[in-house]
Amino acid sequence: MTILELEKKANTIRQQVIIMLQKAGSGHSAGPLGMADVFAALYFSILKHNPKKPEWAERDRLILSNGHICPVRYAAMAEAGYFPKKELATLRQFGSRLQGHPERLKLPGIETTSGPLGSGLSQAAGMALVGKMDKKSWRVYCVMSDGEQNAGQTWEAVLFAAKNKLDNLVAIIDRNNIQIDGYTEDVMPLNPLGEKYEAFNWNVLEIDGHNIEEIIDACSHAKAVQKQPTLIIANTIAGKGVSFMENKYEWHGKPPNKEEAKQALKELKAQ
Amino acid sequence: MRKEAYLHSKVLSKPEMVPTRNGYGEGLLEAGKKDKDVVVLCADLSESTRSNYFQEKFPERFVEVGVAEQNMASLASGMALAGKTVFISSYAVFSPGRNNEQIRTTIAINDVNVKIVGAHAGVSVGPDGATHQALEDIALMRVMPNMKVLYPCDAEEARKTTVAAASIKGPVYIRLARAETPVITTKKTPFRIGRAEVFAEGKDVTIIASGPLVYEALKAANGMSNSIEVINLHTIKPLDEKTILRSVKKTGCVVTIEEHQKAGGMGSAVAEMLAQNYPVAVEMIGVSDRFGESGNPEELLQAFKLTAKDITKAVQRVIKRK
Fold first, then answer.
1. pTM above 0.90?
2. B3-13+186-320 with B17-182: one CATH topology?
3. What positions of B carry a catalytic annotation?
4. Looking at the partner chain, which of A105, A128, A130 has a beta carbon nearest the beta carbon of B83?
5. CATH of A3-269 given 1.20.1070.10, 3.90.1180.10, 3.40.30.10, 3.40.50.970
6. Span B48-94, pLDDT tens digits
7. pLDDT in tens, B9-49
8. pLDDT along chain A (271 residues), means of 10
9. For position A176, what pLDDT does the model report?
10. What's the CA gap between B282 and B256, in Å, rounded?
11. Which residue from A43, A141, A268, B56 lies 20 to 30 Å from B126 (Cα-Cα)?
12. Distance (Å) from the C-alpha of residue B243 to the closest C-alpha of chain A?
C-alpha cells in the first residue's frame, strides 16, 4: 500500500471511530483519533499477520497496553478484515465482542485483555522473551499511552526488557501530552522521556506520529537494532483530524454527541 | 486412620519434618522434566521458595525478574499467551498480595496458563513478623473467577500438587508454608485436584483442615474418645461439595481449621456451601481479624490458637451445638 493509500485508511479509521463512539454514547475520543495513523501503518504495512487466521503462530504480536483507545484498534481490525464492519456499531453494547476495554477471549485477534494501565509492556516483554527462547522470527509491538509512564510497573518492564536484550520488542508511546486530569507535564512530569529510556539501555527514536512514512521507517530501523529493545516516541495530537477535539484533554474520556459527530465527520471527509 | 489414605506410618509417633516449599521445588523438577514448555519465574526469592532447584537443573527456562512482582505476573501472562506453562514464585504477601490487580486482569480474565505460588503463608513464617505473614491470600484468590486454589498439607502433597497443576490448563494458586512440618502422606496417598481426601473416618464430628494444620487435626482426632472424621481439603476451589456433604450428613457438625483469616478463607468456603445446602453447626478455627507478629512458629500457633488443643475444644463446643 502506498503512503497515500495508508493515509486514506487512517482517515477511514477516524471516521469509523467517530461513528462508533457516537453510537455507543460513551468511550474515549481523543486517543483513538490521535493514533489512527499509527494503527493504519501497523495493520496495513508493518505487522506480519493474517486477518483470516488470527491465531497464526508466526504472526507478529500487537499488544495494546492502553486498552481504552480500543476503538481505533477495532476500526483498523474491521478494515483489515478480522470481522464485519457492521459489528463496529455494537461497541460497548451488551453481548458485543467489542468490549469497552478489549478482551482476548471475546474477540479473536486481540492478543490480550487490557485496560488497567501499566501492564501491557510486561506482557509484551514476556512474549518477546518466549520468542527469543524458542528462536522465533515474529516480533512484538506494544502501544502505550504517555499517561501510563506514571505507573511503576511500566518501569519494571523497561528494566526487564533491557536486561534480556529483547531486540524483537518495539514499544510505541502515544505522546499526546494529555491524561485524564490534565496535561501530562502538570499531572506527573515525564520529560525528558526519551533520555529516561536511553538511560535504561533502550534504543530510542522520536517521530511525528501522524507521518506514516516516519512510523514505517522507525519500525524498519528497529529491526536492524541488535541486543536492545526499541522505543518509538510518536508525537501525536490528541483528537487529530477534528478541530474542536484537537489537544483538548476534556475529550480524553467522552464521546461526541449527534451534532458533534456530524461536524467531525464533515471535517474528516474534507481532508 | 483410613487405610486407603496410605498415610505415613510414623505421622503421629515420630514424624519426618519437611517444609512444603521443598515439595514444590521437587515438583517443579518433575514437571520440568515432563514438559519442556514449563518455565519458572522468581522475584529475587529463588532459594527460599525452592525454585532454585529448577534454576539449577533448567537454567535456560528459569527467569529472574528481580523485586518486581507486578511485572512478574504480567510477564507470566505474556509467556503463557506465547505457549508456556508458567510458574511464578514469591512470598504470598507479594504474590498474590502486591500484584493482585495484575493477576486479575492479565492472568484470570485472560484465563491463561499461569501458576501462582505463594510461599511463606501463615503465622508460622515466624520471626519475620506481620508484614511477611500472609493471612489473606486464600480470600484474594478464592474470589477470583477462573482461579483454582490449592493448599497442600505436606511436602509430598506439595510435590504432587505442583506436578498436577502443571498438567492442567488455566490459572492456579498454590499456597506454601515456610516452617518444617510433619510429612503426613506418602507416594501412595490418593491425590486429585478438586477432590477432598478423607484421612480418618468417624461419625461424631467432621474436622476439615487445609495445609500443614491437617497434622494438628489428625493429632486432635487421635487423642479424643469421640469418633472423628478428618478431611484434608487441599483444594479449596473448586470445592468438593460431594465429599463434604457426605461426611456432614453422617456427623451433623463441622470444625474447620486453617492458618488464615477466618473471613474469606477455607472455613468460609465450607460454611457458605453448607449454609446453602445442609446447614449444621460449624466452629471455625483461624485468625480472627488481626495481623501476625514475630515469634517462633510453635509459640505463634499456640498464641493464635491453631493447635490440636484448640481443635479439641472446638470439637467439644460443636458437639454441644448439634
1. yes
2. yes
3. 69
4. A130
5. 3.40.50.970
6. 999 999 999 999 999 999 999 999 999 999 999 999 999 999 999 99
7. 999 999 999 999 999 999 999 999 999 999 999 999 999 99
8. 97 98 95 97 98 97 97 98 97 96 96 96 98 98 98 98 98 95 95 98 98 98 98 97 93 94 97 93
9. 95
10. 8
11. B56
12. 33
Cβ proximity of B106 and B84 under 8 Å: no
* A55 touches B: beta carbon within 8 Å: no
CATH code for residues B3-13+186-320: 3.40.50.920
Residue with cell 507478529: A60
CB contact under 8 A, B74 and A129: no
